[in-house]
Amino acid sequence: MKTYVVLRLVHGSWLYGLATPQSDHDYYEIYDFRNQRYRPKRQANQRIEGDVDEMRISLERFESLCFKGVPQAVEVLFSPPEAWVYVHGSWHDLANGIIQELPKYMTTILDTYRRTALNFFKGDEKRRRHAFRLLVNARELKLSGAMHSRLSV
């Protein structure tokens, strides 16, 4: 196998604390390459089968998405250990390295959160709830450099 799993976790409404009995089951998986010179063009893949939605993404792509402020990636970065299905021993050091770099990209990250929240506010009640969550997360990230992925915290 050319890759190995760095982190696999429960994602989506189950991570945010907004799940209902009708919610699908979302998983987010970060992988890295065993051979650091091997880099296929496609480094993200989403698969939906029944009520299971799986996102699989390379560590390199994940890091890039964090610095761009893509909410799904930033939420994974700050996800609580109880959401983790599998964690490789290297995850803590990798996550801490990304977190230390976030201040350099904070303007971009907060702008992405703002734009995403504004788009969600135009939707139904569920999307507006997510917009609110994004704004709460962005404020917490701006003030403390960290955030909680769950609204209940």
Name some characteristics of this structure.
44% helix, globular, five-stranded mixed beta sheet, 153 residues, 6 helices, alpha+beta, 5 strands
What does this protein look like?
There is one protein chain. By secondary structure, the protein is α+β, with helices and mostly antiparallel strands. The protein has a five-stranded mixed sheet with strand order 3-4-2-1-5. α2 packs across α3 and α5 runs antiparallel to α6. The longest helix has 20 residues. The chain is globular, with a radius of gyration of 15 Å. The mean pLDDT is 90.
> Could you say which overall geometry the principal axes of the C-alpha atoms support?
globular
End-to-end separation: 39 Å
* Uncertain runs: none
Helicity range of the residues? 40-55%
Number of helices, counting only DSSP H or I runs of 4 residues or more: 6
Estimated radius of gyration = 15 Å
Largest sheet: 5 strands, mixed
Number of extended strands: 5
Strand fraction? 15-25%
Major beta sheet, strand line-up: 3-4-2-1-5
Mean pLDDT level: 90
Order of helices and strands: EHEEEHHEHHH
Structural class: alpha+beta
Question: Layout of SSEs?
Answer:
Layout: E1 3-11, H1 13-16, E2 25-33, E3 44-49, E4 52-58, H2 59-68, H3 71-77, E5 84-87, H4 91-101, H5 106-121, H6 125-144
Parallel strand pairs: 2-4
Antiparallel strand pairs: 1-2, 1-5, 3-4
Helix pairs in contact: 2-3, 5-6
Nutshell version of this structure?
By secondary structure, this protein is α+β, with helices and mostly antiparallel strands. Helices cover 44% and strands 23% of the residues. Strands 3-4-2-1-5 form a 5-stranded mixed beta sheet.
